Amino acid sequence: MSVQTLLMDFSIDPARLGDESGQKAVFSQLKSVLKDYVPNLILAAEVAVDGGSLKLLTGKNGTTVSVRLFDRGLVTVNIEYYKEDSEEPLISFKSARVLESQLKKYISVIKSQAYAPLKRCLFGRYYPTSDERLLEYDIDNVVFDEQSPFQRVQIVHSKSLGNMLVLDDLQNISEADLVYTETLMQRGKENYEGKEIVILGGGDGALLYELLKEKPKFVWMLEIDEVVMNACNKHLRSICGDVLERRKGPNYEIIVEDCMLTINKFIKEGKKVDYIFGDLTDIPISESACGELWEFMITILNSSFKILKPDGRFMTHGNGATSSESLELYEQELAKLTPAVSFSKSRAFVPSFLEDWIFYQISFSANNGA
């Protein structure tokens, strides 16, 4: 069940909407066409607002239609109604396109646009890209939903992606996202056999599961959120195997605490590792490198390089390829690190993100003498 919202936009000659009489004439034409699609349509309210007017209509089974007329030449039509899963839509996208065509012809529209219906319900179907464009997913079920002390944790099922981890209403990883993990770890390009590795975060277990196939000497995974691990252990076994259930093996250990506690412990002990994976927050989308998330990310970078061997590497995900400004800010912060570092980037299309993602491989600069 869901509330269906259909949106249509029309551009007409502004002169036709320049006064009250003109707006009433255009609205009358719109209503005469709309009533063929929405039974029992009547005008319930009309309000004069700055820059135009608003008309509210009601129809069969509580359907509402709002028509906003802007004196600058824009008309928006929003149709909203409740639909059970078993019911046929009152207005399908196909019929909405026909309605758009009829309105376009009847009121002499310059340009028009009809949008696929928004399906609004108690579980999310829509998630944003990194640059905040809205994506619709074929989600048909929520299999887990719990608020942890740190974030809202959901596992949703997608017909095309399988189960998908969603944290604070942002998609994180799905059963179709092996490419994400393999690009993060640069499989086939990096040699992890016999190496010591630290994973910062990684609560879905996918990175740890894949790294263990590479025969490392030892992997420490530092994850703070038990709820994430329990949810993924139950509902995302195809990407994490049994590592989140066992928590410890001959060559790995999952430590459940703030990752900085273990990093600081390693610093005091003088311990050095071959690889560190930053599998925590994405690079923040902002106009400048300031704020709590940036401070956290910079702290992680500075501390991580204190426990990295001279020939070691810090591997991390960045953000969507379209978020170029934030990626540039991150690279500017890398340029400020002491000792100096150099980096390379990789790019991969991640199915559950529906966009290209950028990954960083960072190491000490060759001229450091580090």
Descriptive overview:
It is a single chain. The chain has 370 residues and is of the alpha+beta class. It is 26% helix and 38% strand. It has 10 helices and 21 strands. The protein has an 8-stranded mixed β-sheet, with helices on both faces. Strands 1, 2, 3, 4, 5, 6 and 7 form a 7-stranded antiparallel β-sheet that branches. The protein has a 4-stranded antiparallel β-sheet with strand order 10-11-12-13, with helices on one face. A hairpin with a 4-residue loop joins strand 20 and strand 21 (355-364). Helix 1 packs across helix 2 and helix 3 crosses helix 4 (206-212). The radius of gyration is 27 Å and the shape is elongated. The chain starts with a strand and ends in a 6-residue tail after the last strand.
Helix content: 25-40%
The general outline is elongated
Beta content = 35-45%
How many E strands?
21
Secondary structure category: alpha+beta
Oligomer: single chain
Biggest β-sheet: strands ordered side by side in the sheet: 16-17-15-14-18-19-21-20
Largest sheet features? 8 strands, mixed
Q: Could you list the spans in which at least 5 consecutive residues all have pLDDT below 50?
A: none
**Radius of gyration, in angstroms, nearest whole number:** 27 Å
Chain-averaged pLDDT: 93
Tally of helical runs: 10
Terminal Cα span: 60 Å
Offer a concise description of the structure.
This protein is an alpha+beta fold and 370 residues long. Helix content is 26%, strand content 38%. The chain has an eight-stranded mixed sheet with strand order 16-17-15-14-18-19-21-20, sandwiched between helices. Strands 1, 2, 3, 4, 5, 6 and 7 form a seven-stranded antiparallel sheet that branches. Strands 10-11-12-13 form a four-stranded antiparallel sheet, covered by helices on one side.
